[in-house]
Amino acid sequence: MIEAVSLTKWYARLCAVDGVSLSVRSGQIMGLLGPNGAGKTTVLRLLTGFSAPDAGSVRICGYDLVEERTRAQRLIGYLPEQSPLYASLTVAEQLRFVARARGYRRMEIRDAVNAAIDRFGLGNDARRLVSQLSKGMRQRVGLAQALLHDPQVLILDEPTSGLDPSETQRYRSTILQFAQNKAVLLSTHVLAEAESMCAAVTILRDGKVVAAGRTADVVARFAGGSCYRVRVTGTVPAAAYNALSRIGTFRIVEPPADGTAIEIDTGSAGGDVLHEWAVRFGLRLNGLERVVRSLEAAFVAIEQDSAGGDGDRART
After folding, report:
1. Which domain holds residue 282?
2. Count of CB atoms situated within 10 Å of the CB of 299
């Protein structure tokens, strides 16, 4: 598992990561989210041992990443956004190189590479040069080498960026299967991906944690309350809009051909208040449906709540 406590990292006078704590247990996928410059890449570097924190600590399966770096890093599989592959090697040579770097013996290398080729469907491409591979195939090889040593922890940075839908689905399936008994930290800008795959999320802004917890709880907290989409025939008078604003915040969405469609956040109120509103103003109600709140809605709300201050400072 991953246990990070109060991680802090300075670059000159810039505090890139400010007291970040997170915990990922075995069998869990956690999403690391945030806008560009939030500090996600720096956090990943701290969690993998590529950079040392100025304060705080990281433990990988109980091993301190500073004091017991070699033992801790042996338990980590890491795939950055750009897969670290050598263009002049074939796929099989790339995997053999990684196996040797991991300290595998000759017979172990052969078995590990063959297993990875079979697992990731690389048999037809084992003799192809990395330079000849598509983006999706390179990502597949990158994941194969990250998992070659069967790590207890997998850390991924934008793993599906630029992949087509079929490769993305294959990638997600592999990660979900791997995570059944391992800890996975997934940094991504694709909020739908995080919502579908991650049981928990940690959201950063300006190097700080602004929200964390079970994905469903974060959505409920920041995008909570009821939201409805209401459709009415004809023109909605100004008085009806004024009354609607007293029920909750609303916005006119793409209107149907013969009327108006409105989305409204009703807080703790249910759809009955919208029936009553339509009757009161003599509006013909063509549709009323509850809108399922998403992680994206929560993320936008968090961004709005956190906006201001020194958010224009550059981070990675």
Report:
1. 225-292
2. 23
CB 80 within 8 A of CB 139: no
Do 184 and 156 contact (CB within 8 A), yes or no? yes
- At how many degrees (to 10) do helices 295-306 and 215-222 cross? 60
Instruction: Give the whole-angstrom CA distance, residue 163 versus residue 227.
Output: 33
* C-alpha distances out from residue 109 to 101, 115, 158, Å: 10, 10, 28
Domain CATH for 264: 3.30.70.1560
What is the tally of structural domains in the chain?
Answer: 2
Question: For 1-27, how does the pLDDT look when each residue is reduced to its tens digit (9 = 90+)?
Answer: 999 999 999 999 999 999 999 999 999
The DSSP 8-state label assigned to residue 275 in this structure reads H
CA 13/CA 33 separation, integer angstroms = 24
Distance CA 182, CA 25 (A): 8
DSSP strand E in the chain: where? 2-11, 14-24, 29-33, 55-60, 63-64, 76-79, 153-157, 183-187, 200-205, 208-214, 226-233, 249-253, 259-267, 284-290
DSSP secondary structure code for residue 131 in this structure: G
The answer to whether the beta carbons of residues 179 and 143 sit under 8 Å apart is no
Place of tokens 């869990």: 28
DSSP 237-257: PHHHHHHHHHH-EEEEES--T
Token representation of residue 33: 């989210």
- State pTM to two decimals: 0.79
Of the chain, the percentage scoring pLDDT greater than 90 comes to 63
User: Residue 57 in 3-state DSSP?
Assistant: strand
> Domain of 205: which CATH number?
3.40.50.300
Residues 57 and 194 in one domain: yes
Residue 203's nearest CA partner among 192, 193, 189, 183 is: 189
| Phi, psi of 285, deg, nearest 5 | -85, 115
